[in-house]
Specification:
- The chain has about 325 residues and is an alpha/beta fold.
- The chain has three domains: about 110 residues, Rossmann fold (3-Layer(aba) Sandwich), CATH 3.40.50.10800; about 100 residues, NadA-like (Rossmann fold, 3-Layer(aba) Sandwich), CATH 3.40.50.10800; about 80 residues, NadA-like (Rossmann fold, 3-Layer(aba) Sandwich).
- The protein is built from 15 helices and twelve strands.
- The longest helix is centred in the last third of the chain and has 17 residues.
- The protein is globular and about 50 Å long.
- The two termini are about 35 Å apart.
- The chain binds 1,3-dihydroxyacetonephosphate and iron/sulfur cluster.
- The site of 1,3-dihydroxyacetonephosphate (13P) has 10 residues, from loops.
């Protein structure tokens, strides 16, 4: 975001953010992939489904979103009369970018009679062209409610789609998209890490590739992974999702050990570069300046709302 020349950033950022939160009557919603300071001062930290539910239920005047654009956009679709702030409007998502609305429209038009189930990691335009939105925590449940003789288009994550096909036995047509973070994990390095820590269980987000998922003791959404480490008798885990989740694992279950799954290259590629665009400074400035905010035309919002409401009703 543009930092105004008059903008000065105070030293006690966390205190100032909490002061602004009261002043604005705001709620701060954050995803697990946000930096730990943002998670620590959020009113609620959760997975995509929980964040949508919280956004739908809040009575705050302002929603401040610690997450990526499609998450804040979903909050706006559900709350047209509230101010929805996102610290950095460029916090995108490789899945959403890889599924542009004109190409998705063509995909739909070339498969008439199919029901389009679309992962929430997409733009409002793509939501508006879909029948039902899903997240990784409710997709299986939603797919099982579709009559067996109705063919399904699943977009935009082919890895999540393939995992769901395996779980439900449904043959779905998959959009060819993937997440730059979850595709980066090195199976070779993960195997080496497990040899070093033979008691460690591999746990993975379903956006990972099938070969890695086949090695996982547990597969689930970010919240499901967090719940799993608390209930599993295992004491060590190799965690194949964005490394930000380790903060909540260490908080909720401090006695256990967590190893972030290593990426293929010697980089920090197991961190989502989009999520990490949001910083404490930008969070403070967006609340101070009440911008950048998410805006959208009412016609698009109403069309995008329908498949989100269907998701909330069906899950
Ligand atoms: P969750 O819904 O599991 O939190 O996943 C969101 C996401 O973007 C994963 O990369
Ligand atoms: Fe998108 Fe992947 Fe980042 Fe999740 S981790 S927000 S799917 S780019």
């Amino acid at each position: 975001m543009l930092v105004r020349t008059t903008d000065t950033v105070p030293h006690n950022l966390a205190d100032e953010i909490l002061r602004l939160k009261n002043e604005l009557n705001a709620v701060i919603l954050a995803h697990y992939y946000q930096e730990s300071e943002i998670q620590d001062l959020a009113d609620f930290v959760g997975d995509s489904l929980e964040l949508s539910r919280r956004a739908a239920a809040t009575d705050a005047d302002v929603i401040v979103f610690g997450g990526v654009h499609f998450m804040a956009e979903t909050a706006k679709i559900l709350n047209p009369h509230k101010l929805v702030l996102l610290p950095d409007l460029d916090a995108g998502c490789s899945l959403a970018e890889g599924c542009p609305a004109p190409a998705f429209r063509q995909f739909r038009e070339s498969h008439p009679g199919h029901v389009a189930i679309t992962y929430i990691n997409c733009t409002a335009e793509v939501k508006a062209l879909s029948d039902i939105i899903c997240t990784s925590s409710n997709a299986e449940k939603l797919i099982r409610q579709i009559p067996a003789d109705t063919p399904i288009l699943f977009s935009p994550d082919k890895n999540l789609g393939a995992w769901l096909q395996k779980k439900t036995g449904r043959d779905m047509l998959l959009w060819n998209g993937s997440c730059i973070v979850h595709e980066t994990f090195s199976e070779r390095k993960i195997i080496a890490l497990q040899l070093e820590h033979p008691g460690a269980e591999i746990i993975a987000h379903p956006e990972c590739e099938a070969s890695l998922l086949s090695r996982a003791a547990f597969i689930g959404s970010t919240s499901a992974l967090l719940h799993y480490v608390q209930s599993s008798p295992a004491q060590e885990f190799i965690v194949a999702t964005e490394a930000g989740i380790l903060h909540q694992m260490e908080k909720h279950c401090p006695g256990k050990r967590y190893y972030p799954a290593p990426p293929d290259a010697n980089c920090a590629c197991n961190e989502c570069p989009h999520m990490k665009r949001n910083t404490m400074e930008k969070l403070y400035l967006c609340m101070k300046n009440r911008t950048p905010e998410i805006t959208m035309g009412e016609d698009l919002r109403l069309r995008a709302l329908k498949p989100i409401q269907r998701m909330l009703e069906m899950s």
